[in-house]
Amino acid sequence: MLILDDDEDRHEEFRRVFHNVARKHVYTAAQAIRALRNSPPFDLVCLDHDLEKSAELINVRDPGNGTQVALFINQRLDPDHYPRRVLIHSKNPVRPSRMAALISAVGIPVTVKPFHG
Length: 117
Known about the structure:
40% of the residues lie in helices and 13% in strands. The protein is of the alpha/beta class.
C-alpha cells in the first residue's frame, strides 16, 4: 500500500486502520512517483491532492500535488506497475475528480472519498 499525504495525523490514521498491511508512506508527489516506478505494483494507492504541509514537514520547497501523480500514472507509468486500485482522499472539492478521470482512463479502479477530519 502506498500512501501520499502531507498531514502526519492522516498518516497516523492510516497506520492505525491498516496496522497489519505493508505500507509505504510518502509526503511529496516526487516520492510517490519514485515509489510507483520502482516498486512492484501496489494493491492500493491512497492519494491526497494538496500537499502544502509537506514543504514544512519535510523541508522541501515544492511538494507537488496529487494531480501530478495521476498524470504520471496516466501518461508515463509502465502498465506492469499499475496499482490494483486507487483511493483519492483529498479535502480539495475540485481536483479529485480530475485525478480520478486520469487514473480510471487507463483502467485502474478509483474511489474518491473526501477526507473529513
